[in-house]
Model the fold of this input.
Amino acid sequence: IPALQPNNSAPTKQTVLSWQAAIDAARQAKAAQGMSTTQAQPVGSLSQRKRQQYAKSKKQGNTSNSRPARALFCLSLNNPLRRACISIVEWKPFDIFILLAIFANCVALAVYIPFPEDDSNSTNHDLEKVEYAFLIIFTIETFLKIVAYGLLLHPNAYVRNGWNLLDFVIVIVGLFSVILEQLTKEAEGGSHSGGKPGGFDVKALRAFRVLRPLRLVSGVPSLQVVLNSIIKAMVPLLHIALLVLFVIIIYAIIGLELFIGKMHKSCYFEDSAEDEPAPCAFSGSGRQCPQNGTECKGGWPGPNGGITNFDNFGYAMLTVFQCITMEGWTDVLYWVSGVFCVFENISSKKRVLGLFCNSKSLW
Done:
């Protein structure tokens, strides 16, 4: 019977097409599900992940590029000493330790109390010993970085970076001051020359210690961004400074024309020959000496020990700059109006200004 025989014939074309359509539908459904999952994921996380991957690859590229093939002409990348130095300087706890050392050094500089001559106290003696420890730490750091990245010839060498160059100069000055200090002690023990070998005061080099807090900039990249922005902003401000300088020059020239040599007269007492610390005028407009045994004479150095005057261009610019800063400009106003008032002689309509100038003779 044909109906009871097993169906061993090949699948028909219609069956194959049905299977293929089902497989395609399953694939499309899976692809649509994947797209919906991707769209459901936040865009910010994707962009953040891409930025992190880019920063990581960039950091790895910069790290590899910052290592020259040779350092100090003889140390290759396979050298055990150099490999150890690279591992140390690129170790994050090492950077944290250096930053803590810089902070501690700043605290030590703030606690230190300078005394005149060779006087000191126990606290300063202890801080001097601590300074040696800080100098040793910073010297070791400089040595490790020079061995790791080279000194000068490579484009990414240690001193090619401006902040690293500042660190290098601070360390060199510190070592130089220590050497001179030891020579000073030997000279004092031998000849008692006053602690100044060759006439040079070693303590003058201690002023460079104030630069040590700037080493924080090399360890904190955000501070580098801030300082670089400030430096870039100084260039446009230079044009404003030139404008201010131009204004100071103009008014300094006007002061030279009007008040040159006129601020060296003062009221002297006839009995004691003592002077009053204020300029005066012989006759005409200006401050007149009171009728109490005083006489207006020349020979007075001038206000502020002879610094505030219009006798030359330098002093004139300094006086105008003092007025611009609004620091003590009223004193300059009284001194100049006590010498000479040009407004009274310009026009008879300026009697108010003339009254203002002549009223200065009352103080």
Remarks:
- The first helix runs from residue 13 to 40.
